[in-house]
Design a protein that fits this description.
The radius of gyration is 20 Å and the shape is globular. It is built from 15 helices and 16 strands.
Length: 369
């Protein structure tokens, strides 16, 4: 039911081309997954997502547990039917949100007691409860409940967290009830190479359909994130997908791919779109700025999305200044298509064994050093 097909490995880097098969279809890797936190990718319809060629999207267990509740979604026939998305879905475990959003959280071996960020009500999320929720939601890929430590964090706490996350994975595996859902384990360890290795040994001791790297892109310098990838990715199985959680800037996507990462997700493209910033082949453009008032060119002349084929920067700036919803829709369509198209280009570059050159050309054009 779940199979990772390794199609090609780049001879000049650790990048690879693959395909992951799920009950709701297959997706090609490396892949960027748009984030639909509350069973919707903000400002986009499922039809929009199909048009920009999204192959898999992510939803959030914590938010869906808070509202509308996993039992309601189960009653609706599962997340795919509830949101009318017929391709693969991944749900995270809610761990990151519990540790970053919830008020007055109290971490114990049993799980985490916390107060809702919505209404202050009290809740308790354990590995078993997280899996119960994810089983009810019915996503194709579900994540184990882990502790995502902040940055910075001291070594002793990071070590205790690694050990707890490993124990929690064992409980997640025992609680998991559905064979039509692939459970991925998460490697933690903050910015400590030896703890990353320790975590990998504990997580990889369990034969799971895939594995993730968590606890990065949480405030640490990018150079440190790359160091952690350099020491972690080589420990991960060659025949399983590798998922770097919460990463979505173009430079990090390319650097992650070069280090052997297969899957990425991030709220970045839609968040900056709603603030009037778009990604283009020549760098970020803050289209709300006055400089674009009479700019009648597309957001990105090289982009094939609906927004770029039909509208100008001047028009989208007008929508932003007029506080029109269409501004967020068009900018979000563009930014997501930009990253999905970037990954299409990355996959083609791997096929043609020119990924290093593609990375250098893209960085020069985009304005990265």
């Amino acid at each position: 039911m779940f199979e990772f097909e390794l199609i090609k490995e780049d001879p000049r880097s650790k990048a690879r081309l693959g395909r992951f098969h799920t009950p709701h279809g297959s997706f090609d890797t490396p892949v960027f997954m748009p984030v639909g936190t509350q069973a919707t990718v903000k400002a986009l319809t499922p039809g929009n997502l199909e048009e920009i060629k999204a192959e898999i999207i992510l939803s959030n267990t914590y938010h869906l547990y808070m509202r509308p509740g996993h039992e309601l979604i189960r009653e609706a026939g599962g997340l795919h039917k509830f949101m009318n998305w017929n391709r693969p879905i991944l749900t995270d475990s809610g761990g990151f949100q519990v540790f970053s959003l919830a008020e007055l959280r109290n971490i114990k071996e049993e799980g985490v007691a916390f107060k809702s960020h919505l209404d202050g009500s009290s809740h308790f999320l354990s590995p078993e409860k997280a899996i119960e929720i994810e089983n009810a939601l019915g996503a194709d890929i579900i994540m184990a409940f882990d502790e995502c430590t902040p940055y910075p964090v001291d070594y002793e706490y990071a070590n205790r967290s690694v050990e707890r996350t490993t124990r929690w994975l064992e409980r997640c595996i025992k609680a998991h009830q559905r064979d039509d859902q692939a459970l991925f384990g998460i490697i933690q360890g903050s910015v400590y190479a030896d703890l990353r290795k320790k975590s990998a040994e504990g997580i990889l001791a369990h034969d799971l359909p895939g594995y993730a790297i968590g606890g990065l892109s949480v405030g640490e310098p990018k150079s440190i994130m790359y160091e952690m990838l350099d020491c972690t990715v080589p420990l991960m199985p060659r025949n399983k997908p590798r998922y770097l959680m919460g990463v979505g800037s173009p430079d990090c996507l390319l650097e992650g791919v070069l280090r052997g990462v297969d899957m990425f997700d991030c709220v970045l493209p839609t968040r900056i779109a709603r603030n009037g910033t778009v990604l283009t082949s020549h760098g970020k453009v803050v289209v709300r700025n006055a400089a674009y008032e009479r700019d009648f060119s597309p957001l990105d002349p090289e982009c094939d999305c609906y927004a770029c084929k039909n509208f100008t920067r001047a028009y989208i700036r007008h929508l932003i200044k007029a506080d029109e919803i269409l501004a967020s829709i068009l900018a979000s369509i563009h930014n997501l298509r930009f990253l999905i198209r970037l990954m299409e280009q990355v996959r083609q570059a791997i096929r043609e064994e020119r990924l290093v050159e593609f990375r250098n050309e893209f960085f020069a054009k985009f304005g990265y050093e």
